[in-house]
Amino acid sequence: MSVSPPRPLDGPVPLDEADRRLINHLHEGFPLCAEPYHEAGRALGMDADEVLARLEALLARGVLTRFGPLFQVERLGGRFVLAALAVPEARYAEVAAQVNALPEVAHNYRREHRLNMWFVLATETPDGIADAIARIEAATGLPVFAFPKEEEYFVHLRLPA
Amino acid sequence: MKPETHATAPAKDVLDPLDPHLQRRLVLATQHGLPRVARPYDALAAQLGVSPQTVLDALGAMLASGRIRRIGAVPNHYALGYTANGMSVWDVDDTALATLGPAVGALPGVSHCYRRPRHLPDWPYNLFAMVHGRDRASVLAQVEDIARLLGPHCRSHDVLFSSAILKKTGLRLAGS
Question: What pLDDT, on a 0 to 100 scale, did the predictor assign at position B176?
Answer without folding.
Answer: 41
